[in-house]
Specification:
The chain is mostly helical. The chain has one domain (2-246). The protein has 10 helices and no strands. It has helices at residues 2-18, 24-57, 62-83, 93-97, 107-122, 134-163, 170-190, 192-198, 200-222, 231-246. The protein is globular, with a radius of gyration of 18 Å. The protein starts with a helix and ends with a helix.
Length: 248
């Protein structure tokens, strides 16, 4: 558990710090293959790990899982109205400059990212009470960490453009970095018994599965907007697919 929290913190803060010295144009060169890799990994992980586990927890009512998947998918669509695609490693012109002018922290954007990240962390429950969770636990930790790298880089870039100084970026990065670990702590130490006894964990898995499906498919579609064969992106996509299958 401690390793997962450390990895998630290190991933966000490390990728965010890289935005201080990597130019945006050069950063996009490694972000696109990383996005393709993480998108393929998340999509495969959702299909082969998260959804089957949610269905196993509610075998008599599989349609309930489907409803939560839909809620997560379209809920993420609403969250992205506020986050403006930061989860996909994008920094749009409108988000970078904002309607409220430079120097202002984009609180709604940051809040949307925090909700998104908290939900991802909340499914990382590792206890014998839910069966053999260790394999899924670490597979999902890796997926969340990979997903957070381009998001943290984009957030740091956006905050630097908005605030004019990288020193002022760290507070926002730290808030984003803590969201998933807080989700882990809340699920494992605060509401664990309620999650497991009431079927809420299956609902939570379905919700996050829908969230992941939206994020991963959007990433995969956006990495090939012109539908042309791009060998680095294709290789990254196949590598993400292979890694997720390897941990199954």
């Amino acid at each position: 558990m401690g390793f997962a929290i450390f990895l998630l913190l290190l991933t966000v803060l490390g990728a965010g710090a890289a935005a201080a010295w990597v130019p945006v144009a050069r950063g996009n060169q490694w972000l696109k293959p990383l996005l393709a890799f993480s998108g393929a990994y998340l999509f495969t992980l959702t299909i082969t790990h998260i959804l089957p586990e949610a269905l196993q927890l509610l075998p008599a009512q599989p349609e309930r899982v489907g409803y939560w998947v839909l809620a997560g998918f379209f809920g993420q669509l609403l969250l992205e109205v506020l986050s403006q695609g930061i989860e996909h490693g994008h920094v749009h012109h409108e988000a970078a400059h904002g309607h409220d002018g430079p120097g202002q922290v984009p609180f709604l954007l940051l809040a949307a990212l925090v909700v998104h990240s908290f939900l991802e962390g909340s499914i990382l429950v590792r206890t014998p009470a839910v069966g053999e969770m260790s394999q899924n636990f670490y597979a999902i930790v890796v997926g969340v960490a990979l997903h957070h790298m381009p998001a943290a880089f984009a957030l740091a870039t956006l905050l630097r453009l908005r605030l004019g100084s990288f020193r002022r970026v760290w507070a926002g990065l730290l808030i984003f970095a803590l969201a998933s670990p807080v989700g882990i702590i809340v699920s494992n130490y605060v509401v664990l018994s309620k999650l497991l006894s009431s079927g809420l964990y299956a609902a939570l898995l379905g919700l996050v599965a829908g969230n992941f499906l939206h994020v991963s498919t959007t990433i995969l579609f956006e990495t090939s907007p012109e539908h042309r064969l791009n060998w680095p992106k294709l290789a990254a996509t196949l590598a993400g697919l292979a890694l997720a299958l390897a941990v199954a």
